[in-house]
Specification:
Rossmann fold; 2 domains; binds S-adenosylmethionine
Length: 274
Amino acid sequence: MGAARKINPEDSTQFRKLSALVKEACGLNLTEDKDILLDTRLSRRVSQLGLDSYSEYAKLVESDQNELQACIELLTTHKTEWFREFVHFQWLKEQLPKLSAKGNRIQIWSAACSSGPEVYSLLFLLLKEGFNFNHNQFRILGTDISTSILEKAESLPDRADFHDQVNQLLLKVPNKEALLEEIQLSLNHSLKFREFNLKDGELPLRFQFDVIFLRNVLIYFDRPTIQRVCLNLGKYLKPGGHLVIGLTESLHGEVPEYKFLGNSIYQYQPKAKK
Ligand SMILES: C[S@@+](CC[C@H](N)C(=O)[O-])C[C@H]1O[C@@H](n2cnc3c(N)ncnc32)[C@H](O)[C@@H]1O
C-alpha cells in the first residue's frame, strides 16, 4: 500500500491563510481536511508564477485581487450536467401554468450556473412546453462567480453537446423550423449571463424572480454563509417564489423565511414588514 500523502505543517499554515482569504471573498469553506485538495489545485499555479513556497503565494493572493480571483477559480468545482437532478425540471414543468397565468412573464435565475447546461436545460424545458420569446413569455438569467466559466457558458451553443440536446428536442416537437428559430431568438434575447458573487453580490434589477435554482453550491459553504446567501437572494425572489437547491444540500432549518416543500425545494415566505 502507498503511504498516505502528508502536508507539512508550514504548508498547512499557509493553506489556512489562503482559505481565510477565499472564504472572506466568496464563502467557500475549505477546512483543514481539504489541505490535500488545496495542494493539488494550487501547486501548479505556484510553479507557473515562479514562486518558491505557499507562503509567497499567500502574500501574493492577499495583495493582488486578480490573483485572489485566479485562486478562487482554481478552488471552485464546476461539475455540472444537462438536466441534472431531473426531479427539479419535472417539478418546474408542473409549475409553468401557474407561473404564466394572466400572461405573466416567467423569470428564472440559475445562480451558480457553471458552464451553462443548467441554464440551457431550463430554456429547452420552456421551449418544449410551448413558451416562446416572441410573446415575451420568459426570461432566464445565469450567474456565477467565475468569469472564465461564464465565457464557456456563453459559447456552449457552439459545442457538440448543445447540438445533441437540440436534436433530441426536435424529435419531440411538430414544428421543427419554428423551434430552431425560437432557439436562436432566445439565445439572442431571453438568456443573459453575468458575474455574481453569492456571498454579497448585488443585481441592478427592476423585477423579481419566480424561481431561483441554487444547486450544488451551498455544499461548499458553512451554515452562517448559507443563511446569508439565502437571505441575500430573497431580495430578488418574489414572495411565494421558489428556491431550488441541490438534492444533497439543506438549509438546515436555519432560514425560517424559506418553507421546505420536499425534494430540496423551498418557498420564500418573507416576514411582513412592520
Ligand atoms: C458544482 S457547480 C454547480 C453547477 C450547477 N448549478 C449544477 O448544479 O450543475 C458550482 C458552481 O458554483 C460557483 N460558485 C462557487 N462559489 C460561488 C459564489 N460565491 N458565487 C457565485 N458562484 C459561486 C462555482 O464557480 C461553480 O461554477
